[in-house]
């Protein structure tokens, strides 16, 4: 595609963009259990206005746009107060959970460089349930991720295994509140104590849970301690664009004190251009996400969040109870908040096929692969907009499971995984294409039916599936790709 010779009209542009959206997930239906945290039309309007008011302002330089500095300080302060932080706690706004985690890992790396310069190959210890973006942070920043198991059935981090994983090179322990996959809060008090005992930093990834869990606690739910008041916790990330219902591009990373946060900041005056001083990864950035996050906290307010969380939790409990009565499905572990994973207890129920069938009926669930002691499962994240659909969602589940039980087991698909595993043993380029074809991937368009692809990716060794995913994306994003207008 080329830039049009003559500019298009606004009407034409917006019409085209709306058409582009045609195949996207229909999140406004309240049937999408991941990706979207929809605060509803009224809040959305406020977000929209605040965002566009600050669309062009540049967060690059707080001296030129002091209102952005003020907004950042106020958003951090509102978040830190919500999380009951003491006055020494400091923090910054970032573009999302991934950026907050990269910042926390960078801070710990640079803190270790300053305080333990003998460490040449720093390591971070993290349970297998820690979010993928922590592996990404380790990869970007040159840390070795040392992965520890979680307990059978509860999916709680195994603290003894974390203890055993600590070496002279360890600089950071990580835990989640909760981990995304199963929605279970790790034993943070114990992990933080372990960090303290060993003179290590401890990051709590509360990206998805920080806000929701805090309101649950206020509502009287039994929520394990997870915030910066837990002795030994040194940093914490909390996303506003998840259960804060802010527009995408909004997260906060908090530190115990400013002596530690210092290692997050990047300054550069050694080049020929303007002075750079960045608290976060990005440099130039729209003020939109920050203004919108500020606006959403102010607009929904404490009472509003309490009501949302109360409703979402009620719906989640009903849903979990309902699923317990469906023969063939089970919820994994004991979810701490409004997100959970469900697995099959019946050989006729392949969860990936279940997800495909539910998608045809308009319900979107995220497949999660079997890893270590966690079986193949589907992820459900409830939020304000899906909560009112819990009953019809449950009904769709019941019907689909009953339908699957009536169907013959597809032997070919059943055997596929074993065959894939065998093929993957001698992996080369030829095998790559063969595997992709077996899974139904012929071009770059994913097939409607994802069951076989999910089985393929699940069956392959991590390095092979990661290679395949990289190849796939690399091919999907080619010059000239996309419909010619
Ligand atoms: C626990 C946890 N940490 C980090 C992230 C990454 O956040 P983001 O997608 O905003 O980068 C997520 C995303 O779901 C998450 O659940």
What descriptive keywords fit this protein?
alpha/beta; 16 helices; 13 strands; globular; single chain; 7-stranded mixed β-sheet; binds pyridoxal-5'-phosphate; 4-stranded antiparallel β-sheet; Aspartate Aminotransferase, domain 2; 485 residues
Number of helices: 16
Terminal Cα separation, in Å? 7 Å
CATH architecture of one domain: 3-Layer(aba) Sandwich
User: What string, H for helix and E for strand, traces the elements in order?
Assistant: HHHEHEHEHEHEHEEHEEHEEHEEHHHHH
Query: What is the CATH homology-level superfamily of one domain?
Result: Type I PLP-dependent aspartate aminotransferase-like (Major domain)
The main sheet orders its strands as 1-7-6-5-4-2-3
Q: Uncertain segments of ≥5 residues (pLDDT<50)?
A: none
The whole-number mean of residue pLDDT values reads 94
Helix share of residues? 40-55%
């Amino acid at each position: 595609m080329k830039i049009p010779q003559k500019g298009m009209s606004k009407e034409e542009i917006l019409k085209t963009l709306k058409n582009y959206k045609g195949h996207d997930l229909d999140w406004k239906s309240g049937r999408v259990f991941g990706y979207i945290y929809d605060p509803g039309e009224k809040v959305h309007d406020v977000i929209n206005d605040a965002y566009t008011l600050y669309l062009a302002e540049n967060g690059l330089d707080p001296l030129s746009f002091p209102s952005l500095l003020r907004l950042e300080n106020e958003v951090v302060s509102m978040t830190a107060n919500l999380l009951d932080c003491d006055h020494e706690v400091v923090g910054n706004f970032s573009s999302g959970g991934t950026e907050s985690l990269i910042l926390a890992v960078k801070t710990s790396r640079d803190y270790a460089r300053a305080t333990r310069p003998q460490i040449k190959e720093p390591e971070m210890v993290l349970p297998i349930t820690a979010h993928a973006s922590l592996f990404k942070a380790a990869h970007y920043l040159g840390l070795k991720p040392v992965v520890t198991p979680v307990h059978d059935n509860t999916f709680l981090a195994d603290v003894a295994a974390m203890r055993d994983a600590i070496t002279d090179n360890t600089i950071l322990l990580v835990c989640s509140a909760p981990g995304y996959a199963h929605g279970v809060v790790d034993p943070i008090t114990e992990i933080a104590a372990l960090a303290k005992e060993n003179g290590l930093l401890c990051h709590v990834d509360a990206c998805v849970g920080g806000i929701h869990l805090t309101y649950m606690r206020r509502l009287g739910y039994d929520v394990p301690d997870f915030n910066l008041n837990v002795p030994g916790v040194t940093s914490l990330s909390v996303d506003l664009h998840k259960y804060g219902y802010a527009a995408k591009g909004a997260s906060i990373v908090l530190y115990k004190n400013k002596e530690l946060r210092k290692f997050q900041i990047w300054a550069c005056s050694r080049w020929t251009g303007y002075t750079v001083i960045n608290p976060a990864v990005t440099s130039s950035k729209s003020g939109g996400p920050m203004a919108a996050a500020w606006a959403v906290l102010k607009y929904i307010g404490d009472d509003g969040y309490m009501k949302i969380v109360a409703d979402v939790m009620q719906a989640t409990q009903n849903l979990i109870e309902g699923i317990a009565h469906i023969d063939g499905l089970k919820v994994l572990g004991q979810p701490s908040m409004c997100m959970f994973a469900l697995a099959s207890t019946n050989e006729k129920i392949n969860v990936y096929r279940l997800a495909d069938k539910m998608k045809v009926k308009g319900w979107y669930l995220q497949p999660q692969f079997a890893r270590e002691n966690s079986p193949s499962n589907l992820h459900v994240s409830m939020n304000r907009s899906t909560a009112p659909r819990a009953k019809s969602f449950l009904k769709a589940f019941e019907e689909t499971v009953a339908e699957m039980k009536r169907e013959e087991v597809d032997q070919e698909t059943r055997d596929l995984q074993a065959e894939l595993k065998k093929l993957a043993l001698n992996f080369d380029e030829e095998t790559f294409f063969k595997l992709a074809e077996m899974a139904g991937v012929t071009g770059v368009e994913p097939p409607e039916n994802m069951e076989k692809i999910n089985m393929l990716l699940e069956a392959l060794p991590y390095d092979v599936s990661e290679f395949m995913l990289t190849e796939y994306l690399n091919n999907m994003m080619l010059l000239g790709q996309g419909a010619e207008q």
